[in-house]
Amino acid sequence: MNSVRRIRVGAVSYLNTKPLIYDFARFAPHAELVLDYPSKLADALAVGKLDVALIPSIEFFQDPSYTIVSNACIGCRGPVLSVKLFSRVPPAGIRTLALDEGSRTSAALTKILLKQRFDIEPKLQPLSLGGTLAESDADAVLLIGDRAIHSPLGSFAEVWDLGDQWCRWAERPFVFAMWVARAGVDLCGIETALEQARDAGVAHLPKIAEREAPLLGLTQPECLAYLRDNLYFYLGPSERSGLALFHELAQRQDLAPQGVDLGSVHLEGA
């Protein structure tokens, strides 16, 4: 066992990731699992502190040497529930936009939808990790993750579920995050382990919901419905098509560089 190198794997600490890392230690005993915010995982992968990480899709576009190593992902084919834009004014009138620093993909998606649908580019403000709506006086505030599932108090002109908005407008699924490896890494069979963990997690959604619901102030049925009905964990051809469109639009707004080969995505079993 000592001859097997321990591979460092980073995953998001949100509820939406629990099915992807279900019983992870059993499927990948040679891996060390690190939990953190999406943006921090992306930074750690970029500097070599992680070998493989579940990173925001916008981060995958930043480095042409990255490789998607699993057909497990966090995506949606409709409302996602955990990524929302709370607007205090009608969307066309948004002039200031506070962005949750936890995920750069959701921030890019918000910018793209506002530009494509209303031809606006609001002045941006940061919202600290764990920040609340009350901390910002911006016209609109993006919240992601477990905090976005709960409906905050306050009066809003409109609340966007970003998954729903994208899927209706683009008529394609959206991929928020996927498993990516940096260049030159010996994967040690982690590709198979990631898909095995995903398959086991999807098969045990009720058990995951029962365990996680009390921690988030949700009922077990609410938690189960979110995992089962709002999320999609398979990176298939439709998801790749949505990813390609997101990349194209991100390039137009200088949110992503040219030269990313989306054709290299591994889709075996999708």
Structure description:
The chain is α/β, with parallel strands linked by helices and 270 residues long. It folds into two domains: 7-76 and 174-264, D-Maltodextrin-Binding Protein, domain 2, CATH 3.40.190.10; 83-170, D-Maltodextrin-Binding Protein, domain 2 (3-Layer(aba) Sandwich). It has ten helices and eleven strands. The strands form two sheets. Strands 2-1-3-10-4-11 form a six-stranded mixed beta sheet. Helix 8 crosses helix 9. The longest helix has 16 residues, at 237-252. The two termini are 32 Å apart.
- Report Rg: 18 Å
Q: Which structural class matches the secondary elements?
A: alpha/beta
Instruction: Count helical runs.
Output: 10
Shape field:
globular
Give the beta-strand count.
Answer: 11
Q: How do the SSEs run, as a string of H and E?
A: EHEHEHEEEHEEHEHEHHHEH
What is the fold named in CATH at topology level of the largest domain?
Answer: D-Maltodextrin-Binding Protein, domain 2
Sheet with the most strands: spatial strand order = 2-1-3-10-4-11
User: Residue share in helices?
Assistant: 25-40%
CATH superfamily of the largest domain: Periplasmic binding protein-like II
The structural domain count equals: 2
Spans of at least 5 consecutive residues with low confidence: 264-270
According to CATH, what is the class of the largest domain? Answer: Alpha Beta
How large is the share of residues in beta strands?
15-25%
Characterize the biggest β-sheet. 6 strands, mixed
